Amino acid sequence: MSEFQEDMIFKNVNEEDARILLDIIGKKSKKVKIMTKELRQIDPTTFVPDIILELDDEILIIELQSTKVRKRHHKRFHIYVALSDFNFDKIGKEVNLCVFTTAEESKKISLYVNKDNNFQYEVINLADYDSSEIINTINYKIEHKTEINSKELVLFALVPIIEKTGTVEDYVEYIVDTLLNLNDLTPSIKALVLGIEWLIVDKFVTDEQTRNILCDALGDRMSLIHEYAMNKENRIIENLLIAGNSPQKIAKDADIPLSRVKAIERKIKKC
Questions:
Q1: Contact 58, 96 (CB under 8 A)
Q2: pLDDT digits (tens, 9 = 90+) for 149-188
Q3: pTM surpassing 0.70?
Q4: For residues 162 and 130, what is the distance between their CA atoms, to the nearest angstrom?
Q5: Do the beta carbons of residue 30 and residue 47 sit within 8 Å?
Q6: Which of 2, 143, 196, 259 could form a disulfide with 215 if both were Cys (CB 3.0 to 4.6 A apart)?
């Protein structure tokens, strides 16, 4: 997992923007308070829930999942609830958990712990949302300089796990790039959507270098965005060389120095 950036994730998210997540789940609450950071400080490397909200009558943990939940997930989620119950004991509210996914239908999971304890949580299927429609709406509003509402932005950030036909990595770079280039967002909704995308990148992007660069970019370490673009371009050049294109043609078509293409070619030959 990438180094957790305490000062970045969900910073400045207000109650109204966090309430969008409840709208997707179908919950209502007068109180919505982001509490994720407080539990992360107990064990920031091993058991790290995605989002924790304090509501009127409960503490709600929200997990983002791109695959079906299995026994190992049940047990990890059980630990999240137990840790939260222990840490937030003074609040005096029950702790519940739900999972956002498109990998399976909405249902209630029951994990047998012992004869006196069944751990239950909800799986919320996001399949009712059309990722193409979400993307087209955002692109249309960007092109026509129309205001994008908060729910549209949250759903756009969730597209990599909403999309049913591809993988998270097929969409995440495009989503990150689009979000980083949106201007005039309020600090709260910006913190929420970038925080959600940070979680998705950190959990589901398998290439370590790409994952770290995207997380850094989402965390406002903007000096690394140029490095991210350069690495992405280098991968394209590598693929063109492997496909049989000559360094001269690649350099000419891409308008980049031949020496750079030759250096990448030498690197490939050494492997």
A1: yes
A2: 999 999 999 998 887 676 777 788 889 889 988 888 888 8
A3: no
A4: 8
A5: no
A6: 2
d(CA 73, CA 203): 14
Query: What letter does residue 90 receive in the DSSP assignment?
Result: G
Q: Which amino acid appears at position 4 of this protein?
A: F
Identify the bridge partners of residue 96 per DSSP, sorted by sequence position: 60
Neighbours of 248 (CB within 10 A): 11
Which secondary structure element, helix H or strand E, spans residue 168, and what is its range? helix 168-180
Between CA 54 and CA 74, with CA 205 as vertex, the angle to 5 degrees is 50
What's the CA gap between 187 and 197, in Å, rounded? 15
pLDDT of residue 3: 43
The pair of structure tokens assigned to 204 is 């589901």
Residue 120 has pLDDT above 80, yes or no: yes
255 SS3 class: coil
Angle between the 247-254 and 225-242 helix axes, to the nearest 10 degrees? 140
> How many residues would you count in the chain?
271
pLDDT in tens, 9-56: 676 788 888 889 999 888 889 888 887 766 555 444 456 788 889 999
Q: Give Cβ neighbours of residue 53 (< 8 Å, ≥ 6 apart).
A: 18, 21, 22, 32, 33, 34, 35, 59, 60, 62
Q: Are 66 and 103 in contact (CB under 8 A)?
A: yes
Among 220, 196, 192, residue whose Cα is nearest residue 17? 192
> Which tokens sit at 253?
């078509």
Q: How far apart are CA 213 and CA 181, in angstroms?
A: 16
CA pair distance 99, 39, nearest whole angstrom: 18
